[in-house]
Amino acid sequence: MKHTFRFALPLTWFVAIACALGAMSSLTLAQTETVLYRFRGNDDGANPWAGLVLDGKGNLYGTTEYGGALGTCFNGGTSCGTAFELSPTAGGSWTKTILHRFDEGSGGGNLRSGLIFDPSGNLYGTTIYGGDTSCEAPSGCGTVFELSPSSGGWNETVLHAFSGTPNGSWPVAGLTFDKLGNLYGTTSGGAGTVFELTPNSDGSWTETTIYTFGIAQDPLAGVILDGHGDVYGTLGIPGVAFELIPGTSGWSATVIGRGAYIYSGLTFDRKGNLYGTIDFAPTEYGSVFELVRSGTGWKEKMIYSFKGGNDGAGPGFGSLIFDKAGNLYGTTTSGGTKPAGTVFKLTPNSDGSWSESVVYSFQGAQDGALPNAGLIFDGQGNLFGTTYHGGTGNCSDYGGVGCGTVFEITP
C-alpha cells in the first residue's frame, strides 16, 4: 500500500487558520515579488514541492510533484511529476521547458526532491515511488535518477531503485555530493535510512545503507557534509538533529539537538554552526534554532519563535540560506498578511540575539500560496523559490486551489 506521510498538507492549513485569528503586526521590508511561472496542471506539471537550482547562465531548474500526465501515480491520478527548466528571455519573461515527465514505472514517479548539478551539467534527484515494482509497496519504493542533456533533450537514467526494508524506501528529500563525487541522501519509509551511492568505472552506481534509524524515525530532509566527511541531518519525528561519523567498524550516530517536528534540513554558517527550523514548537507557530559546537558536544539555542498572523507560522520543510552579510532567509507555509505564507529574514545583532523581518507575504490566488521549500540567491542578490499552491490551473485534487508558482523577490 502507499506510504502515508505524517506531514499531510491539511495540518498546515489548520495552523494557517489559527494564525489568521491571532494576527499580529510585523515589520515588512520593501521588496518586489514577481511570479515567473504559474503551473497549469496536467501535461504542464503541478505542485512544485521542492526548491530550485541555478546554472551558470541564469536558468532555473526544479521539479513538480504531480502533473506530466504519464502513468497512474499517487492518489490514482494520471500525474507522476516533472523536471523543468525556466530560461530568462531578453524581454524579461521566462520560457519553461519540461525536461522529463515521470511515469512511476521503472523510471520512478512523484517528486518532492529538488535537483542538483554535477560538474558536467547532469542533474540528479529522487522519486518517492516507482522503480522496483517487486518492492513491498505495489507502486515501488522510489528511485535515485540522473538527467543528462543530449541533442534531442534530456535522458533519464535510474541510478538506484530502492527495495524496501532494510535497504530503504520512499526517498522524499534531495541529494548532496561529497568531494569524491559520491551521492548521499535519505529514505523515509519503514525504518528511515541514510544512504550513499558510489559511481563505478562502468557507469553504474553502488548503493550502501550507511545508517538505519529504526521504525517511525523518518528523515524527511536531505543531509549535508562537513569537510571531514561527517554527515548531518534531521529526523522529522521524533524530532532530532543528528551527526553521523564514519569509523573502521561503520558509522556511529550522535544526537546533537532535539525538537518536535524538524522537517527541514540543516545549514552551516562560516564557523561550522548549524541552523534549522522546527515546525510547531516551542509554540504552535514554529521556531528557528542554532546548534553551536561546545567542547566535544553541541549547544542548542532558539534564535527566533514565530508569532503567527502577519509574522508567519510553520517554517515547514525548506532549509535556511545565508546571504553574504550573514543574514538568514527562509519561508513559512502559512501566516503573513494573508494566511498564504511568507519569506522571512533573520538578522544577527551584536548581543547575540536575532531580529526577524517579513520580506514578503504571499497573497494566494495568482500570487502563490504555501511556499514549502527553501530559497536560492542569484549573483545579484535576488531570491528565487516556489509555492505549492496558488497561480492558475485546477489542482483541487491535491489539497488546494492553483497548481503552484515559481517566484522571484528583488530587493
Protein architecture, described:
With 411 residues, the chain is mainly beta. The chain has a single domain, classed as TolB, C-terminal domain (Neuraminidase). The chain is built from 1 helix and 28 strands. The strands form 7 sheets. It has a 4-stranded antiparallel β-sheet with strand order 1-28-27-26, with no helix packed on it. Strands 2-3-4-5 form a 4-stranded antiparallel β-sheet, with no helix packed on it. Strands 6-7-8-9 form a 4-stranded antiparallel β-sheet, with no helix packed on it. Strand 19 (274-278) and strand 20 (287-294) form a beta hairpin. The chain is globular and about 55 Å long. 48% of the residues are buried. Mean pLDDT is 88; it is low at 1-29.
Q: What's the layout of helices and strands?
A:
Blueprint: H1 9-21, E1 32-38, E2 53-54, E3 60-64, E4 82-88, E5 94-101, E6 116-117, E7 123-127, E8 143-150, E9 153-161, E10 176-177, E11 183-187, E12 191-199, E13 205-215, E14 224-225, E15 231-235, E16 240-247, E17 250-258, E18 267-268, E19 274-278, E20 287-294, E21 297-305, E22 321-322, E23 328-332, E24 342-348, E25 354-361, E26 376-377, E27 383-387, E28 405-410
Antiparallel strand pairs: 1-28, 2-3, 3-4, 4-5, 6-7, 7-8, 8-9, 10-11, 11-12, 12-13, 14-15, 15-16, 16-17, 18-19, 19-20, 20-21, 22-23, 23-24, 24-25, 26-27, 27-28
